[in-house]
């Protein structure tokens, strides 16, 4: 009987973890920063597979003279079927970034990626 509150708390935390969206933030954009890029990335599910997508900033073939101050990845699935975002390189303090988006097994994903920064005057 004395362990009942701990068991209830554990079950509740698993429920909240599985039913909530997974949002990711790197850095801390200030109110004076501009939004450099906004992308909506959707990948459909594949049976018994994990789907992935690499997202680059700036897009291939483009040059960026802005310094990244923050990256926000917002999961649009709120039913616990969302994916995972991993910053592989670059990001805040750099001019480039590479993000890996990854789904759960047998599910797809739907993310909004926003990149913030400021202009370097060299």
TrEMBL record:
Name this polypeptide is given: Uncharacterized protein
PANTHER family from the UniProt entry: GEO11136P1-RELATED
Task: Please spell out the taxonomic lineage of the organism that makes this protein.
Answer: Eukaryota, Metazoa, Ecdysozoa, Arthropoda, Hexapoda
Q: Where is the signal peptide?
A: 1-21
**InterPro entries to which the protein is assigned, alphabetical:** MBF2
Instruction: Could you list this entry's UniProt keywords, alphabetically sorted.
Output: Signal
| Organism field | Hermetia illucens
């Amino acid at each position: 009987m004395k362990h009942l509150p701990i068991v209830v708390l554990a079950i509740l935390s698993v429920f909240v973890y599985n039913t909530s969206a997974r949002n990711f933030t790197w850095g801390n954009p200030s109110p004076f920063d501009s939004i450099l890029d906004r992308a909506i990335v959707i990948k459909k599910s594949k049976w018994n597979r994990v789907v992935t997508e690499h997202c680059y900033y700036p897009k291939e073939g483009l040059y960026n003279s802005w310094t990244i101050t923050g990256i926000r990845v917002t999961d649009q699935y709120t039913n616990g079927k969302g994916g995972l975002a991993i910053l592989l390189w670059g990001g805040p303090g750099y001019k480039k970034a590479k993000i890996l988006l990854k789904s759960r097994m047998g599910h797809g994903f739907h993310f909004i990626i926003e990149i913030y920064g400021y202009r370097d005057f060299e």
